[in-house]
Write a structure and sequence with these properties.
Length: 343
């Protein structure tokens, strides 16, 4: 039986330190009910964006020129890397370092993605890791799929987020002039990068501005938002836990493919400093790793952090759920068989 108790950050921290690793997996308790302060402006904007996104998907599949379709995919990859290789792995987790040209490139890509400035994104994400599955986690997945996917952007934040926010140190990010520039001019840069340029460029090869807008701006934007949100929702719910059975995040290959390698979420929450955000980081399922490796080859990325096989193996055996393909049930079974034979 998982322990029951009021859902506060403190109580969950207590459970964590009290973990008996051999006992039934201890999952974070569900959040207590709360009174929502709905932000209707966001509800209306996101509803309209999604209607426009569905129409854009229809144009993408049926009417857009091939060059326009390819450009939309190109923008998906660029803006996706601005989140994965940029806001997430470089800035929120400092899992590698980047020279100025790469920081400028990733900030530009990140602005195309319009998920708010890197400084704001990284602040919420550091909270998500530090206070995972509690009210101080902006997209607390114990509130269910809808809340962790999009709902958290439709309501005022929980007071715990603002109360505990001061425990997050962002001085390393504020020290970067590129990020300060993005934050200062965000309301000018974002519309140009996310909507105006993506809509205009396809007219250069004869596409209509209408198709350019709905396919390369709206559909592409809504698509990237939704696949990103899947990491907060699906990747905290449906999958296996080979590295740590005591947390909610899971491994999900299908999500990983569309989020450029960010679906190995049980691994990522266990070893958040690994630049691969996955144990193996095969390129086919981890386009972001391919990108960072190429950047490292040309000298723009350096000090790539990772985790040794030995540390991973020990952790898998200590806290994994047995589903690890090399050190899972069979190896655990063999070890216990050996022990029985010795006794
Ligand atoms: C978007 C973000 O979609 C998506 C993030 C997803 C993260 C996924 C992570 C998964 C791993 C990576 C996988 C990547 C995969 C990518 C694949 C790509 C192919 N700490 O926020 P406010 C304080 S954005 C400390 O307004 P409200 C602070 O004082 C979409 N303090 O709260 C703040 O003032 P300031 C586009 C904090 O009023 C003040 O509170 N953007 C913290 O409750 C007010 O903050 C939108 O649609 C903190 N963490 O409003 C905008 N947070 O900022 C949506 C707050 O001046 N957001 N404070 O310092 C909003 O409209 C509002 O934030 C709200 C809450 C209505 C949701
Ligand atoms: Zn993370
Ligand atoms: Zn997570």
């Amino acid at each position: 039986m998982p322990p029951q108790g009021p859902q506060t950050t403190e109580s969950w921290v207590l459970y964590e330190t009290d973990l008996n690793k051999d006992a039934t997996p201890i999952v974070p308790p569900s959040a207590e009910k709360r009174k929502w302060k709905i932000v209707w402006r966001n509800v209306i904007i996101f509803a309209m964006l999604h209607i426009g996104g569905v129409y854009g998907a229809y144009l993408f599949l049926t009417k857009a020129m091939w060059a326009t379709r390819l450009f939309a995919v190109f923008l998906y990859l660029c803006s996706g890397l601005g989140i994965t290789a940029g806001a997430h792995r470089l800035w929120a987790h400092k899992s590698y370092k980047a020279k100025l040209p790469l920081r400028i490139l990733l900030t530009a890509f990140n602005t195309i993605a319009f998920q708010d400035s890197v400084l704001d994104w990284a602040r919420d994400h550091r909270m998500h890791h530090k206070y995972s599955e509690t009210d101080a986690d902006p997209h607390n997945a114990t509130r269910g799929f809808f809340f962790s996917h999009i709902g958290w952007l439709l309501v005022r934040k929980h007071p715990e987020i603002k109360a505990k926010g001061h425990t997050i140190d962002l001085s390393d990010l504020w020290a970067d002039p590129v990020l300060r520039f993005q934050k200062k001019y965000y309301l000018l840069l974002m519309p140009v990068a996310c909507f105006i340029i993506p809509s205009y460029v396809p007219t250069l090869w004869g596409e209509s501005l209408w198709n350019g807008y709905f396919v390369c701006a709206i559909f592409r934007y809504v698509y990237v938002l939704n696949v990103t949100w899947l990491v907060n929702s699906a990747a905290h719910m449906f999958g296996s836990k080979p590295y740590d059975k005591n947390i909610n995040p899971v491994e999900t290959k299908s999500v990983s493919l569309v989020v450029l390698g960010e679906g190995f979420h049980n691994y990522h929450h266990t070893f958040p400093w690994d630049y691969k955000t996955a144990e193996l980081g095969e390129y086919s399922l981890n386009f972001s790793k391919l990108f960072i490796d190429i950047m490292a080859k040309i000298g723009w990325a350096y000090d790539l952090k990772t985790v040794s096989t030995d540390v991973i193996k020990k952790r898998v055996k200590r806290t994994g759920d047995g589903s690890h393909k090399e050190w899972g049930y069979e190896e655990i079974h063999e070890l216990s068989q050996e022990k029985i034979n010795q006794d």
